[in-house]
Amino acid sequence: GQQLNQSPQSMFIQEGEDVSMNCTSSSIFNTWLWYKQDPGEGPVLLIALYKAGELTSNGRLTAQFGITRKDSFLNISASIPSDVGIYFCAGPDDSNYQLIWGAGTKLIIKP
Amino acid sequence: DAGVIQSPRHEVTEMGQEVTLRCKPISGHDYLFWYRQTMMRGLELLIYFNNNVPIDDSGMPEDRFSAKMPNASFSTLKIQPSEPRDSAVYFCASSFVGVYEQYFGPGTRLTVT
Fold it and tell me: In chain A, what residues touch B91 (CB-CB under 8 Å)?
């Protein structure tokens, strides 16, 4: 079945650094969603991508829908402490209405 | 508008007890999803409803788990009897028909001792 592979699994960064993470699949996806989960909370939708090649920003966050439709990237510029959390990518299963989820990238800011 | 509401936020119970988790989706949303999240298995879809009708319950782990949606604004996930391995965070999410974006509640952290 369809799977999403996220990398890296975790990132240790300094405040102020730019962050880049990605999500890849062997299958084509027609929609890519990026979520963030804070500790003790539910995932929150950050960005939705609908078209191959699309580049969408939300504040300091920028996400891209890969041209091959098999990958997506999320970048965070000038990281701040509240960026800490787990970032998930997700895409719709092509046979039903469910979402396929990546395992997440955990972002940790070094003190 | 209020987001997805879940209750309780935390539940601690003893093995063998019945547990009921509750969810109120966003008004007007047609789809409702129940997920379970653990460190080992990540985010797993248990069941989802469309217009109050269960569509796919293949993720429900055992017959001990059941879910209902008696109306458009309320759903329950019940575990009877509960076991320690059911300890996890349970999320409810909802979405509009025709779009894939799901909106999550804050979750219920279940601990079964």
Answer: 42-43
CA distance B100 to A49: 11
Provide CB contacts within 8 A for A4, sequence distance 6+.
A23, A24, A25, A89, A90, A91, A100, A101, A102
Inspect the interface and report whether the beta carbons of B42 and A103 lie closer than 8 Å.
yes
Which of B42, B33, B56, B48 minimizes the C-alpha distance to B104?
Answer: B33
Q: Walk along chain B (113 residues) and give the pLDDT tens digit of each residue.
A: 689 999 999 999 999 999 999 999 999 999 999 999 999 999 999 999 999 999 999 999 889 999 999 999 999 999 999 999 999 999 999 998 778 899 999 999 999 99
Measured distance CA(A57)–CA(A27) in Å, rounded: 25
Tokens (6 digits) for A45: 């939708």
The residue ranges of chain A whose pLDDT is under 50 are: none
What are the φ and ψ backbone dihedral angles of B31, each rounded to 5 degrees? -110, 140
d(CA B111, CA B113) in angstroms, rounded, equals: 6
How many angstroms separate the CA of residue B80 from the nearest CA in chain A? 25
A86 touches chain B (CB under 8 A): no
